[in-house]
Amino acid sequence: MIPCYNEEAAIESFYTELVRQLPDDYQFEIILVDDGSKDGTLNCIKNLAEQDEHVSYISFSRNFGHQNALKAGFDHASGDCAICMDADLQHPPELIKTFIEKWEEGHDIVHSIRTDESTIGKRKKYSSKVFYKILNHFSDVEIQSGMADFRLIDRKVLDQLTNFSENFIFYRGLFPWMGFRQTSISYVANERIAGQTKYTFGKMVRFASIGLTSFSVKPLRYSIYLGLLFAFLAFTYLIYAVLVYLFTDWAITGWTSLVVSIMFFGGINLIMLGVIGEYLGKLFIESKRRPNYLVAESNLNKR
Ligand code: UDP
Ligand code: MG
């Protein structure tokens, strides 16, 4: 399954290359998920579906995001296993053969890890490194650096996946969390064939925040530790100030230090409130139990 958001420039070359690389001795279904694209993506996809009966499509009523597009693919996949990959050929389709080999060896989830990073921009490379460092520090599951949303999943894992109803999905953490027999292969990402990255800075930050808050409450616990540390420091300073006042004939003066410390602690307080707010906001949205995506159009039930 392939999530597509404004990929009209890439989709046809992607499809041609994909079909060229699919092993002949298996039956395939190609599910293209149009994530509320604003360009001609849906038309391209429909054309492909008309030409090729193996192509199915799902079109969302608006942009619901990459992870939800993947969810739609997982929900509708009907095969013994499913492979998800990007529409921009950054995930090399020739690896599908290796995925299937690993699957036939008995692995239920085959991940892919991006190794050589020369083809992805500098900004992406460093932000991704820092992100995985922080994520692994905070979260309770081990997520390998460079993990991509390019993987094979066995039917029995897909069936389990339907029991998950979380709104904020972070598959890179969810799959390692699920267990089963997992393995990974490494790959070198190609350059994007056409178009631009659909992960804007804002989307990346949101994605990172979901990753951080989905697998651990450590950020909350750390705020308690930080609070205790500062309370201790403040208390020590208080004792010092009182002693100075009682036993010497000078008093600690300083309007500046007072204002600076008030602002400093005010800032720390606001950050901690923000962390709590982040969890609370997620709880609020999860509690509404809204669907992850709305389908506007699809040819799945016609098949
Ligand atoms: N994508 C999507 N919805 C979005 C953003 C991205 O379906 O809101 C798709 C996009 O079309 C592509 C895949 O997710 O197939 C990965 O996005 P992209 O290649 O832009 O990310 P990058 O490789 O730069 O991290
Ligand atoms: Mg890409």
Automatic annotation (TrEMBL):
SUPFAM superfamilies: Nucleotide-diphospho-sugar transferases. It is a multi-pass membrane protein. Keywords: Glycosyltransferase, Membrane, Transferase, Transmembrane, Transmembrane helix. It comes from the Bacteria. Residues 2-161 form the Glycosyltransferase 2-like domain. The chain crosses the membrane at residues 224-247, 259-280. One of its GO terms (cellular component) is plasma membrane. InterPro entries: Glyco_trans_2-like, Glycosyltransferase_2, Nucleotide-diphossugar_trans. It holds the Pfam family Glycos_transf_2. Its main location: membrane. This is Dolichol-phosphate mannosyltransferase. It comes from Mangrovibacterium diazotrophicum. The lineage of its organism: Bacteria, Pseudomonadati, Bacteroidota, Bacteroidia, Marinilabiliales.
